[in-house]
Structures are given as structure tokens and as C-alpha cells.
Design brief:
The complex is a heterodimer. Chain A is an alpha/beta fold. Chain A has one domain: Aldehyde Dehydrogenase, Chain A, domain 1, CATH 3.40.605.10. Chain A is built from 10 helices and 10 strands. Chain A is globular and about 90 Å long. Chain B is of the alpha/beta class. Chain B folds into 2 domains: 256 residues, Aldehyde Dehydrogenase, Chain A, domain 1 (3-Layer(aba) Sandwich); 180 residues, Aldehyde Dehydrogenase, Chain A, domain 2 (3-Layer(aba) Sandwich), CATH 3.40.309.10. In chain B, helix 8 links the parallel strand 9 and strand 10. In chain B, helix 2 runs antiparallel to helix 4 and helix 9 packs across helix 10. Chain B is globular, with a radius of gyration of 22 Å. The relative contact order of chain B is 0.14. The chains are: A alpha/beta, B alpha/beta. At the A-B interface, strand 4, helix 9 and strand 10 of A face helix 8, strand 17 and strand 18 of B. Strand 10 of chain A pairs parallel with strand 17 of chain B, so a sheet runs across the interface.
């Protein structure tokens, strides 16, 4: 009896909760670090990017209006689903090469733990960043953080799962929705993560994942007038400058790329959340 | 309407020099170039003084002075920095009458506002941030938050000394040194502040003041020795600055334009709402980025409200800004007046109906009567563009959802107002308005403890409160 031939997966985009191919019909070959063929991934176009922004905008009122408790529950659910697919991610990361099974396992575990960490933040960030302000007059005055809106995320090129989770979770934990440009060289875990997101009660459109060329897609997102913020963590120096210049057009909140290599296992701090939060201050007179 | 006898504030309290140099490294220095500019009283067109126009070399000199002062100032114990700031706050209080008159002369705003709003807030701002200087480790930015270095700060002409306070007080409290450029039409109170720095014995180079126009500002924000840029002004210039800083490590905060909706529901106390609407758009001649320039009134009370509003506008007194009875002062410059006129004409041309009370206009100076437009559509320029003058656009709505939709239908997001007696509706509105400050049953309130700043194209970062420290710390 011959050995059974495996059924391979088609890697597509993730937009508005669905898995479409690129409208452009384009794809590109993803290879391991040694050059072995792994799969074809969709090569997203400008139109795909715009569709993803429209999906993210559509999802924003519901997601930002959900209770913080509910968002935290869903982030925790994502962690649960990711944990259940541990073996699949370890296989995907090791197939790409460069890391062994043990190290890949540690990365997946860290990604799960990171989601749990951010799940807990969703209903605490308001208390940490908000304030009751003692103004010099008879007024009730309260400041609270609110999500910025639709955020474009250029995911790190290395650390395809842990890095990816570390840039998505802080953006959505606080109520933003996002369009993520996955690592160009290692996009497969991003699409597998999208399968996790699709089965975690996360409303469609809260996270949208594009694969392809960051240099091609990111500038469309940076210049898009319905995108409110952009995380340039995964952009190289040249692309980052281009995107930051384009982002000035509608004064997007910009998270610049880190000055040096990032240790994704370290305590992430809260800057990834605060960059994409606004502060709203409400005044009301006090009197009888 | 009552007649009022003139009650002018004396200008003798102010001693304006005929000519000013630049304040660099604790000294008055002459600029390297020959460029000088006359600053005028917009109420009379009288020349008040000549000020230097700083060029690139002058800006460089100021940035170097600030960089040299940074190690000393940032290493100083916070408690000592605090005492300098407390000293400055006290000096401002001691000289507040003089500074209020000077502000009114140079800016054109009524003395009642410079005396009762601007100056008290300026002193309060320094007092507030003075107290933070030795408590930064408790501010929520880590155990030992560090300053950034040299802050390049560019401020507008609508609240000259108050904007200076918003910029300099938190910068210094956090341990940064500053180079500040006041607006070209209102440099005099910033130059008076330089004298206050000397009276406070502030170490040389901690505060440097360079006067000039847009080119001076561009030289400052683009100077490689600047680590932090803070700008308050138009969205157009804010965009240019953001683009220019792309690829640098400079930290940027921007407080830009606005087109705030002031929303009146049918259950609102109409008399109070009328006062709030007047304060929202006619305070400081409407030269306020957070002005309530779009009145959204629920259809059922629109007629009653407009009648009461028109009656109230008939009692506003326009004229000599130094008169203590004056409600509406002069427009700050001929250029700004031309812009207000142009947009008002566009309002008429696009089909909105223009109304102003009978209002005598002085023969000299720059003036614009309080004006309101009815029949305004959302597509009209007067409903979309920031006029920055005493011009109110009135629109109507039927449901709360429609009010939210119309209020948020703007690229800006600085402020908003909501008038209703129903608490749940007020909070529902407040949560849906995409604006950094929401005033409910009040408008145009400011306080150093209260963060101020916008959503969307109104800029980013906050000034005031604990939040205002973040823009000046390496976090």
C-alpha cells in the first residue's frame, strides 16, 4: 500500500472574517530558509488593502462599543484556540527553518501567554490611564482613554508568530480594529493565526490579514484617509520614512520602527497600547 | 439695552521697548540678519514695537544654548526645578495686570478676557506643573522617567502667553530645556516672559525665545539638535511638520484646528445654552481652536433658540479691547480678517443666510461683527472649514443619532458641546462624539489639571494634567 498523500492548505487573505484570494489573482511562492517550497501565499493588492480598511472601519463601532470585559473574554478565547493548535504552529515555524522544535514551542507558548496578558489589560487600561481631574471650579471632570480607530500594522519580518501576536493584541485589546501586513518572507503562521481568530468569537473585520509585499501594500495603508494610526514595527528604514510621510496627510498616530532588534520575550510595557489611544475629557457643571 | 460709560484700563502700566532682540542663553542678543518686523495693536493699527526676525543662524545659536543648559537642568533635583517654576508662577501673578494689558494691546482681545481668563490660567499652569517636577516617579511613566532634551516649541497668536505656559511649564518640569517661537503678530508677552525668567534667576539657556515667522519656526522644528517638537496652530502647518519629522527620532505633539459641534437638545435649559453658545463662538473673537463654530440644534426648539440667541447677540459690545465693558475685541491681524471675510462671503455665495446685530465698527483697526449663518448645509465651506473668527454656522437635527452623525462629520476632533438635562443622553452623546474634550452644559472651560487635545486631524498628544507630562518624557 502506498503512503497516503497529504491534503495541503491553500493560504489566502483574511478580510472581514472571510478568507478571500487576492482580487488581483496574484500569489507568490513562500520558501523555507533553505529555499524549499512551502506554499503559495496570496500577494495582496491595493484593492485588497482598501477592502481590508473598509472591513476594519465597519467593525470598529461594534468592537470599540463592546464592553471591555467582553473584549477581554475574546482575547482570552484567542489564547485558548492558539494553545489548541500548538503543534500546528510548531510544525509551521520549524518547517520555515532556523529554529528547533523546542525553541518553536517556547515561541508559541510565549504567544499564548502574551494574549492572556493583553486579555487582562482590556478592562484595566482605562483605570490606569484615566483620571478624575481636580479642576479649580464646580465641575465634574473625567478623562478616559478611547481607541483611535482603524490601525494599520506592518508586522515584524522575523518572529512570525510571537512578533505578530505582540503587535496585534495591544491594538485590539483597547478596542481598535486593524489591518495587518504579515511578514513577507514568513507569512504562513499569520494566515494560520487568522484561522485561530476566525474561530475565537472575534467579530469579522476586527483583525484583517494581508500577505504579500510590505513595500507595496504599506504605503497604500499609510496614505489611506480612513486609517487613523500605523504601526511601522516591521518596516525597514526606507519604507518607514515613506509611510511616515504619507501618514502625515491625515495626521495618523505613528509608532515608529524600533531603533534596534526587539526581544519579543521581554515585558512589552504599555506603549503599544497608548500610541493608539486617545484621551477624552468630559466636563459637567456641579450644582443644584 | 443699558448704555455704559467707557471704562478703559490704563496702558501706562506697560513699558514697551521700541525694539527687541532675541532672548538666548539668558541674554538679549541682536540677530545676525537685518530682518525686523513691526508688531501692531490690531485695535488701532498703531505700531507697538519692532522685533527681530530670527534666521537659521540665530535658531542654531538658541538650540545650542538650550543643549548646553540641558545637562545642568535635567540633573538638577526635581524639587529645585519645582522652586524655579513656583517662582515664575508667582512673578506672573505679581505682574499679571501689566501682562494682561500687554496681551490685550498686542493681540486685540478684550481686557476682561486677558485679565480674568488668560493670566489666571497662565499662573495656574506654572503652579500645577511646578508641583510635578519632583513627583515624576509617581506619574505612571516608570520609576525614573527621563526628559527628552531640547524642546522646540511653536505657538499661535490667539492665546499668546497661555500657549507659552502650556508649552514651557511641562517641558521644564520634566527636565527639558526649550527654544520657543511666539507667533509673528503677538511676540510681546513672550518677550516679557523672558524678563520674568531673568527675574527668577532661571539658569541661562533653559528658556530661549526666538521671534520670527514661519521660516523661523521651520528652522526650529527641523533643527537636528531638537529632540522634541510641540506645535499649536493650523492643521495645514501641523501636517508639514509631521511630514518633515518623518524618519527622525524627534517626539512630536500637535494641537491643531477644530470645527466643534455645539449640540442643543430640546430639553436643554435654553437661556443657559444661549450663554454657552455665545461663550463657545464669540469668546476671544472666535480665535479659538476648540470654538463651538457649528451649532447643532434640535429642530423642535430651533426657532425659539435662534430668537433668544439673536436677542443676546444684540447686547454684545464690540470695541476698544482695553475697555472693561468690551465683549468682542479686535481681529488679530489684517490677514486673519481677510480670511474670515472670504469664508463668510463663501457662506453667502453657497446659499446660507447671514445675520449680524446692528453693531458699529470702529474706523481704525481690524474688526468683524458677531455673525451667524442659518440654512447651513454640511457641504458648505462654513460648516467644514475652520473660520477662526466670530462666525457661527447653525444646522439642525431631529434625533440623537443624527446629531452624532453630523457632529462627527468632520476631519477634526478637538472638542464638542452637549446641552441636555437628561444625564443618560448626555453620557451617550459624550461616548460617541469623536473629540478630545466634551463640554456638557458648559463650553470653553480650561484648567491645568484637565488634559486638552484632539482626535483625528486636530492633532495628537495632550496638554494639561498628568497626561501632559508624557509628551516631554522618554516613554
Amino acid at each position: 500500500m502506498s503512503e497516503r498523500l497529504s491534503v495541503r492548505k491553500t493560504y489566502k487573505l483574511f478580510i472581514g472574517g472571510a478568507f478571500p484570494r487576492s482580487e488581483s489573482g496574484r500569489s507568490y511562492a513562500v520558501t523555507s530558509s533553505k529555499g524549499d517550497f512551502l506554499a503559495n501565499a496570496a500577494r495582496a493588492s491595493r484593492k485588497d488593502a482598501r477592502d481590508a480598511v473598509a472591513a476594519a472601519r465597519k467593525a470598529f463601532p461594534g468592537w470599540s462599543g463592546a464592553t471591555a470585559y467582553n473584549r477581554g473574554q475574546i482575547l482570552y478565547r484567542i489564547a485558548e484556540m492558539l494553545e489548541g493548535r500548538r503543534a500546528q504552529f510548531v510544525a509551521e515555524i520549524t518547517a520555515f527553518g532556523g529554529v528547533g522544535v523546542k525553541q518553536a514551542g517556547e515561541m508559541v507558548d510565549a504567544a499564548v501567554d502574551r494574549l492572556v496578558w493583553y486579555a487582562g489589560w482590556s478592562d484595566k487600561i482605562g483605570a490606569v490611564l484615566g483620571s478624575a481631574n481636580p479642576v479649580a471650579g464646580p465641575y465634574f471632570n473625567l478623562s478616559s482613554p478611547e481607541p483611535t480607530g482603524v490601525v494599520a500594522v506592518v508586522a515584524p519580518q522575523v518572529g512570525p508568530l510571537l512578533g505578530l501576536v505582540s503587535v496585534i493584541a495591544p491594538v485590539i485589546a483597547t478596542g481598535n480594529t486593524c489591518v495587518v501586513v504579515a511578514s513577507e518572507r514568513a507569512p504562513l503562521p499569520a494566515i494560520t493565526l487568522a484561522e485561530v481568530l476566525a474561530t475565537s468569537d472575534l467579530p469579522g473585520g476586527v483583525v484583517n490579514v494581508l500577505t504579500g509585499s510590505a513595500a507595496e501594500i504599506a504605503p497604500w495603508l499609510a496614505g489611506h484617509m480612513d486609517v487613523n494610526g500605523i504601526d511601522l514595527t516591521g518596516a525597514d528604514a526606507e519604507l518607514a520614512v515613506t509611510c511616515e510621510e504619507l501618514a502625515a496627510e491625515n495626521l495618523k498616530r505613528v509608532l515608529r520602527p524600533p531603533a534596534g532588534p526587539v526581544n519579543w520575550l521581554a515585558d512589552p510595557g504599555i506603549a503599544r497600547m497608548t500610541t493608539f489611544l486617545e484621551t477624552k475629557t468630559v466636563w459637567h457643571p456641579i450644582g443644584v | 439695552m443699558f448704555e455704559y460709560a467707557p471704562a478703559p484700563e490704563s496702558r501706562d502700566i506697560v513699558d514697551i521697548r521700541p525694539s527687541y532682540g532675541l532672548f538666548i542663553n539668558g541674554e538679549w542678543v541682536e540677530p545676525q540678519g537685518e530682518d525686523r518686523h513691526k508688531t501692531v495693536n490690531p485695535a488701532t493699527e498703531e505700531v507697538l514695537a519692532e522685533v527681530a526676525w530670527a534666521g537659521e543662524a540665530d535658531v542654531d545659536r538658541a538650540v545650542q544654548a538650550a543643549a548646553k543648559a540641558f545637562p545642568v537642568w535635567s540633573a538638577m533635583p526635581g524639587a529645585e526645578r519645582a522652586k524655579y517654576l513656583f517662582r515664575i508662577a508667582r512673578l506672573i501673578q505679581e505682574r499679571s495686570r501689566e501682562l494682561a494689558v500687554l496681551e490685550t494691546l498686542d493681540n486685540g482681545k478684550p481686557i476682561r478676557e486677558s485679565r480674568d481668563v488668560d493670566l489666571p490660567l497662565v499662573a495656574a499652569h506654572f503652579f500645577y506643573y511646578a508641583g510635578w517636577a519632583d513627583k515624576l516617579s509617581y506619574a505612571g511613566f516608570g520609576p525614573d522617567p527621563r526628559p527628552l532634551g531640547v524642546a522646540g516649541q511653536v505657538i499661535p497668536w490667539n492665546f499668546p502667553l497661555l500657549m507659552l505656559a502650556w508649552k514651557i511649564a511641562p517641558a521644564l518640569a520634566c527636565g527639558n530645556t526649550v527654544v520657543l517661537k511666539p507667533a509673528e503678530t503677538t511676540p510681546l508677552t513672550a518677550l516679557a516672559f523672558a524678563d520674568i525668567c531673568r527675574q527668577a534667576d532661571l539658569p541661562p539657556g533653559v528658556v530661549n525665545i526666538v521671534t520670527g515667522a514661519g521660516e523661523t519656526g521651520a528652522a526650529l522644528v527641523n533643527h537636528p539638535g531638537v529632540d522634541k517638537v510641540a506645535f499649536t496652530g493650523s492643521t495645514e502647518v501641523g501636517r508639514l511638520i509631521a511630514r518633515g519629522l518623518a524618519g527622525t527620532r524627534k517626539k512630536l505633539t500637535l494641537e491643531l484646528g477644530g470645527k466643534a459641534a455645539n449640540i442643543v437638545f430640546e430639553d436643554a435649559p435654553l437661556d443657559q445654552a444661549v450663554e454657552g453658545i455665545v461663550n463657545g463662538i464669540f469668546f476671544n473673537q472666535g480665535h479659538v481652536c476648540c470654538a463651538g463654530s457649528r451649532l447643532l440644534v434640535q429642530e423642535s426648539v430651533a426657532a425659539d433658540l435662534l430668537e433668544a440667541l439673536k436677542r443676546r447677540l444684540g447686547t454684545l459690545r464690540l470695541g476698544d479691547p482695553l475697555d472693561k465693558n468690551t465683549d468682542i475685541g479686535a481681529i488679530n491681524s489684517a490677514e486673519q480678517l481677510a480670511k474670515i471675510r472670504e469664508l463668510s462671503e463663501a457662506g453667502e455665495a453657497e446659499g446660507a443666510e447671514r445675520w449680524s446685530p446692528a453693531c458699529p465698527i470702529p474706523d481704525r483697526g481690524y474688526w468683524f461683527p458677531p455673525t451667524l449663518f442659518t440654512g447651513v448645509a454640511q457641504s458648505h465651506r462654513i460648516a467644514r472649514e475652520e473660520i477662526f473668527g466670530p462666525v457661527l454656522s447653525v444646522l439642525t437635527f431631529r434625533t440623537p443619532a443624527e446629531a452624532v452623525e453630523k457632529a462627527n462629520n468632520t476631519p477634526y476632533g478637538l472638542s464638542a458641546g452637549v446641552w441636555t438635562e437628561k444625564g443618560s443622553l448626555m453620557l451617550w452623546m459624550a461616548s460617541r462624539l469623536r473629540a478630545g474634550v466634551v463640554w456638557s452644559n458648559t463650553f470653553n472651560r480650561f484648567d491645568p489639571t484637565s488634559p486638552f487635545g484632539g482626535y483625528k486631524e486636530s492633532g495628537y498628544g495632550r496638554e494639561g494634567g498628568r497626561h501632559g507630562l508624557e509628551g516631554y518624557l522618554a516613554v
